[in-house]
Write the structure tokens for this entry.
Amino acid sequence: MQMRTIEIVVGAFMLAGIVSLAILAFRVSGFSVGDSAGTYSVYAKFENVGGLVTRSKVSIAGVIVGQVAEIELDQKTFMARVRMEINADVNQISVDSTAAILTEGLLGGKFIGLSIGAEEAYLKDGDEIRDTQSAIVLEELIGQFLMKQF
Amino acid sequence: MNDVLKDTRDDHVVIRDVTFRRGQRKIFDGVDLTVPRGKIVAIMGPSGTGKTTLLRLIGGQLKPDTGVVEVDGRRIPQLTRSELFEVRKSMGMLFQSGALFTDLSVFDNVAFPLRIHTDLPEDMIRDLVLIKLQSVGLRGASQLFPSELSGGMNRRVALARAIALDPGLIMYDEPFAGLDPIAMGVIVQLIKTLNQVFGMTSIIVSHDIHETASIADLIYVISDGKVIGSGAPQDLMQSEAPKIQQFIKGIPDGPVPFHYPAADFEEEIMAGQEQRGWFG
Amino acid sequence: MLSALRNLGQFSLDLLEVLGRAGSLWWQAIWRRPRLANAPLLIRQIYQLGVLSVVITVLSGFSIGAVLALQGYNQLVKYGSESALGLGVALVLVMEIGPVVAGLLFAGRAGSAVTAEIGLMKATEQLSSMEMMGVDPLQRIVAPRLWAGFIAMPILALMFSVVGIWGSSLVGVDWLGVYEGAFWSAMQDGVDFKSHVLKGIVKSVVFGLVVTWIAVFQGYDTAPTSEGIAAATTRTVVYSSVAVLILDFFLTLVMFNF
Ligand SMILES: Nc1ncnc2c1ncn2[C@@H]1O[C@H](COP(=O)(O)OP(=O)(O)OP(=O)(O)O)[C@@H](O)[C@H]1O
Ligand SMILES: [Mg+2]
């Protein structure tokens, strides 16, 4: 085959590789550049975070408004302290909102659902949500269920 | 040793007391041999005595167990890999099998060493390649591929490729095998011309006594891992030594073991001819 | 007993010797970096090893993605979690099946061709004549193939994964009716570029290097006969397939923090 044809085909091959990489980056792994630029941090303490992990979603009324950035153990209270990064344009979350750890489907991943309160004051960067609801742990539920039976 | 050697100061290739074994078998057992610069030297001997092996020792593809192999005063076995490749640029070798690159056309095969080792412009390379191909009578075949050539054409292209760079030292492994009488005459003439015009030192391995004798300045006869005779063709022709006589005259029965020791001589000849058919 | 021990010792020594030769071949060749003048050789090899493997890779990727979607859906739908289908398929493809299966296909399709080609070059004295012309076959023959494998293999693995994910979306979303938004967003939430995609790429690079290394060495080291070449070609496919699978285990062990 002509060397020129081969060069062109090989060029197309390399391009296909780059396109594949781009698809995997943007379409498949939702990789976006400078994501944390337009966010602010809000904290919440939970008795039990269950299967919550970093990068889990934070949603209001089912709409994703941010993600979990950090989970650590508060050594004084022995509760889990979660830092969420909320998109900057969602800036009217009242201070008495509730954060609950919810499950997608029966075996799906955990995410944080925020229910908006009534106060006029809004959460700012570094604030903490007081009212929280821990993850429902399947084993505990089953345990309670069994206890009631007997 | 020989007179011809004594008065030659300038030796292109020197082989001194070389031993070489393949597994248990000793191929060479103290071979001494020199190739004077600018001469045509023929190496003859029965099939399987190690003539090809000797060329590979000179080219550095094999290393001797003991002894000295010198080309242009450089000890080949002691060279590093890159030094060796440097030295080889001034050598040419016609392989017994031709060994053309099957993925390249005849033209590109001959152009290969030129393209790699020179910075000549493409039109000059084209001219050079066509000249070389013309000299082996295959200019018309330049666009064919090796698989489309006959055996004899194959070796002629290989010859054109081996001389493409006009190397100072050229080794021909059986250049006449598989050639018709006309082509043979042309190639004999070509080897001689290259030697006379460019002063190429030439080493010819061949079984064709008469063609070889007609152009060689010096002939070595190797048998049983040793040089059993050497000298100018006419001296050798008149040599009294029975081994030499047997070889020169081509007498099947005699002191020279033409074939690897085996049972019956008749069978040996049959087996030997088969072997030459395949590898010779 | 004694002779068994001796055989074992002999075998280990032989193995070490082969490894040594293969290692030195690789080492010598890899430092003969393709110079600009040799770029056409590299391009030709990327064509031979990469481009010619695209069809088989893409077809396999598509059908494996589709099958994963079918089987995954069957299981997930029992728990009402079929929205995790895209996530599951994508993770499995990107981290494991993409690099591994593309590596196996590469060994069978490209590795065997390289061994046969180099083996035949050796048998017909093309390598010897190249050496005698002062041209190093390590540089002209071996190095371009090693580098081409290094470049082509990750591209093939990426294509495999992308086509596989596409195939799974065709089956999952368009045919089985998984909600499209959930399919993609669960995937985007769960698949991380650095900790999943990139590690998959690292795997495929390693596989590309190892497969071409084995292929080149087997060709270069073959007995110069037709049986020798046949045996070497078989060995290339067997050794490199096993190497891909074993290396995959260890790479997973190391990279995914077990
Ligand atoms: N790769 C090898 N392994 C083992 N032995 C070999 C090998 N190559 C050649 N030999 C042996 O070395 C000896 C010399 O071989 P070589 O090819 O040099 O012979 P030759 O003189 O060129 O013969 P011919 O005239 O038939 O070409 C032979 O007897 C052969 O059996
Ligand atoms: Mg020979």
